[in-house]
Known about the structure:
The protein is an alpha+beta fold. Helices cover 30% and strands 34% of the residues. The chain has helices at residues 28-31, 59-80, 103-110; strands at residues 8-14, 19-25, 39-46, 83-90, 93-100.
Amino acid sequence: MSDTEPQWQLSEIRNEHETMLIRKKLSVLEDRAISGSDYVIYLTFGCAPPANAVSYYTKADADTLADIDASDIPSLEKKTGAELVGAVSATRVRDFIFYSKDPDRFLECAAYL
């Protein structure tokens, strides 16, 4: 992989009930040959809604997800060789999407997040 910062695209999808934010890594195909031996893995974090919740996340949830993004995801990539290629945020949930050649190793390491 290159040492340059990856480029990301942020998209928003809305309907009358909710908004979804989609973050996609644009440089993934430049740096990595995707083959039939790659797996797509979704790592989902859900947040329990407090009473009368109207926001995407509480401040505590947002802080936890920011910590996961900043430290846990890079650590997981380093330990497993997987690559984060996208994330989808919806009301009270975030899916991190990875490409991995070794899903068993990925799941073993992810269990300790």
